[in-house]
């Protein structure tokens, strides 16, 4: 799911027991739902059920003669030594986190630019997660580091036990390559994060106990923690409200690490925030839309982005625009500082991230789902925009930037071209630095783009990856993938596992650009949320029908796949149009939407779906909630549901309950639960490879074997 917060308050505190098992406000309780006991993630009864389902699924899938080969193919790609080691640029070198068969949990390592440019860089290990886990008897998963600018020597390392979003944090010295004895340590796992104010001070947003987490179980307070003092005694510097999704305080620095602003926010819904700045000794609420965010500092200008039209100071800034104010003027008068347009989208354009070097800002955009990167400079009182010379008709991203210099790296990719890493020192066009090897044979494949017509007449684009010269006679096994939520775009990219395991074996692949995503900007998202969320499901079903009508495939050879919000998407599709599909991979899903606010981090997504405790909104949700839509007398396409025990975000209960209800009704289904991974599944490559093979065997049996598996 998309995560929005200055303090990265997107981890979770624990694998939570649902807030309440009883029926409330029209929400089903134990009397209405016999499978609520499966919401206890690690109860012995629930885990016994999981083991039995896993044994059943593995006994069937692993005996397929293709299983071992598919597992080996997937593992070879995941463990490949020649894949591009993507890096972040820091003052003391290029950092990379690397996992392979020798280091399944991974190593944090660094090298120099000169060495990185060679085919065989010399890497220096900074932190070995496998060794740390072995020494401490933990299933540590590395969750990143937060370092003190500008040197970034002192860092807070985040570690998760078994893949949960919840983390502990420890201070680490990148020069000595050791955890700091007597340093900052947070050993109680929690969602939340930290920022360095200076070498002896952290801003901390965590679960401090008592009334310090929201209904969504995110922090809503921030404390200023001084070195050598207990965290429990740290001064609280900002407090949101328990009714918020999350809240916290952060900092805005320039490229030299100087703190110019202390900021805060209250996330009043997943997509809306009230923003504040510390001004004249108090928190001043900023006069800006709730769907707008402060950015960074470039050339003495502070940037602001907005997802809605913003009328202010006698002008209207359109949705998705990038705006700036003079930093010093903003510091004097935050709400009165003059606002200037930096960039506004043309039709079917949208921005999608970027970065800043010492002297320039870079912004990646989509132009009709094709990537571009723009360089932005403030010169002589105005913004100058230059397009960066990168490949056409590709998905482009800013990979990493240096705040010390003008060094920057970009990535380019598409469905059939392995990812390429580009480098520039800021003085000329980017040059190819590294290219990922080919992991599947793309010579005999091609890509086409089509449009389906959704139920309300809206045109929905989708990409088809298929064998060259494929007969449009409706006989090609086809996998349709979608997401359609949280303003997250689904873009052409080199999908090595899909290519090797599915395309090479004769299948076709469709990627749908559904409303609810971000492919065409905030409006594409906002038109398909809450009371209009059904539009996302309609779009996906329309793409499936269009694929059949064009002769790409037929209902007996069309499968669908999606994870998280995409798992909900697949659940709605196979329950609303079961006749259209013959396979459905429902991965780490939301599924019981009448209780979703009580399970995992569900309450944080009320801004996307609505609140089932409110009758009017419950009516929207009940109209599509897959768990409630599984009923007797319907022939469903034998779905494959999978989840992760350690998933403290969407929670395994959703997939478990869906499988249990299908079983109760005598419907064919498959269920598998990764018992060590987090929201995305296995924590090491062997587990990931096995999970990929399970899904591919399922698809091949359903779509390529005339359903002989049943």
Question: How is this structure best described in words?
Answer:
With 710 residues, the protein is an alpha+beta fold. The chain is built from 14 helices and 39 strands. The strands form 9 sheets. The protein has an 8-stranded mixed sheet, with helices on both faces. The radius of gyration is 25 Å and the shape is globular. The two termini are 34 Å apart. Mean pLDDT is 93; it is low at 1-23.
Task: Summarize the SSE layout with pairings.
Elements: H1 44-61, H2 67-78, E1 88-90, E2 93-98, E3 107-111, H3 113-116, E4 124-128, H4 129-136, E5 140-147, E6 154-161, E7 167-173, E8 178-179, E9 185-190, E10 193-198, E11 201-205, E12 221-226, E13 235-239, E14 246-253, E15 259-269, E16 272-279, E17 282-285, E18 292-298, E19 301-306, E20 310-312, E21 315-317, E22 322-326, H5 327-332, E23 339-343, E24 349-356, E25 361-367, E26 370-379, E27 382-387, E28 395-401, E29 408-413, E30 420-424, E31 431-435, E32 445-453, E33 459-467, E34 478-481, H6 496-503, E35 508-512, H7 522-526, H8 534-549, E36 558-563, H9 565-576, E37 583-587, H10 606-609, H11 615-622, H12 626-629, E38 640-644, H13 653-664, E39 670-674, H14 685-703
Parallel strand pairs: 34-35, 34-36, 36-37, 37-38, 38-39
Antiparallel strand pairs: 1-2, 2-3, 3-4, 5-6, 6-7, 7-8, 7-9, 10-11, 11-12, 12-13, 14-15, 15-16, 16-17, 18-19, 19-22, 20-21, 22-23, 24-25, 25-26, 26-27, 28-29, 29-30, 30-31, 32-33, 33-35
Helix pairs in contact: 2-6, 2-14, 8-9
